[in-house]
Amino acid sequence: MFTTTGSRGLDKAPLSKGLLLVLSGLTVVLTLLPQYNHLFTYSLQAITLQHQVWRLVCGRLICLDLKDTFCNSLLIYNFRILERRFGSRKFASFLFGTWVLTALVDFLLSEAFHYLFDYQVSELPAGLLGPVFSLFVPFYSSIPKVPVTQLLGQISITNKSLVYIVGLQLLTSSPFMWLVALSGLVSGKLYHGNALRVQRLLFVPRWLSRVGAFVLEPLFSGPPPPNEPPLGMGATLDIQRQQRMDLHDQQMLLAQFHQARRNHRPPQNGLMNWNRFFPSLRHRGQNLPPELQPHPSPPLQPHPSLPLQPHPSPQQLHPTAPPLLEPTAPPLLEPTAPPLVNTPVAEEQVARLMEMGFSRIDAQDALRASNNDINMATNFLLQHLG
């Protein structure tokens, strides 16, 4: 029911993979060595009263709770799409900038909470939580929302629903996690909006990015995703057959798209000739009105006044000619797909595609070609026009 964002795996996301491996590994080590946990607690009281400034680094990198580590790792894995879109250097600059900003905002929010409710916050959840919560800001504003299904006919489930659910689960894991989350969202909004030009002050230098790419990228670079997605374990034959048909449709779309690029044929509607891209989708499972269905032409009837004369065969005209083989019936041709112009589309789905940045013509043509399947139309538009 839920889908993750982006393709599977950690391809082109070395920083996300490094954070997952290093931070999760250190959490496991601290679980096996609990006598060192006190060195990595995020104690605001120890920082302000005892001047243990080193806790700003140690207490804000490693999670001490396994449940927090699991939810935090899931969020980093799903936020890898931001690293693929913006690049590892910009992604690292965002994490570094928000990590510095959350250190300041944590103290401001704790002091405001103490002033309003007369309660001193002495300790906050440890780990790289503030920068991860700040990633919700570019994730919400930059990643398009694709509807997947409807829950109870009212609640819309999208490709981003799982990420928000994991964020809510992490938010309810400890009493003052809401303060860390609010600090992360405020810092993410400040850095993403470049308030006070913080992006020019807090960033990863280019030379450091090149050194990291040269040293760390060969270690943490993930393999590319496989070409053929595996079938679900325990799936029925109908589900497996449907998955194979969808995969076949995608391969046909890509092959015809590359063929059209090689032929340099001018588009007919919008930016693309959608009739050439969706032939199989038009034949399979189409629900068109009766007036748009192709009607076969009736066979020709002989005139009643003319007698039926059999045509002489070549053997009768030329007795010495060699005998001919038995003629075979020509293969049946599939009926051509009806024109896309007459297929009705839903204006609500057109508006959703236009909100993602696509033109109205391409949105209408994609919906007509995919039989109003907004998921297939969105995926194809994002892949070839995004």
Structure explained in plain terms:
The protein is mainly alpha-helical and 386 residues long. 53% of the residues lie in helices and 3% in strands. A hairpin with a 3-residue loop joins β3 (147-151) and β4. α19 (360-369) packs across α20 (374-384). The two termini are 25 Å apart. Residues 231-235, 264-271, 279-289, 291-300, 302-309 and 324-341 have low confidence and may be disordered.
Observed structural traits:
single chain; mainly alpha; two-stranded antiparallel ribbon; two-stranded antiparallel sheet
* String of helices and strands: HEHHHHHEHHEEHHHHHHHHHHHH
Strand-pairing-aware structural class: mainly alpha
Mean pLDDT: 76
Rg over alpha carbons: 31 Å
Distance between the termini: 25 Å
General shape: globular
Number of helices: 20
The oligomeric status of these chains comes to single chain
Question: Sheet bearing the most strands, described?
Answer: 2 strands, antiparallel
Low-confidence runs:
231-235, 264-271, 279-289, 291-300, 302-309, 324-341
Strands, total number: 4
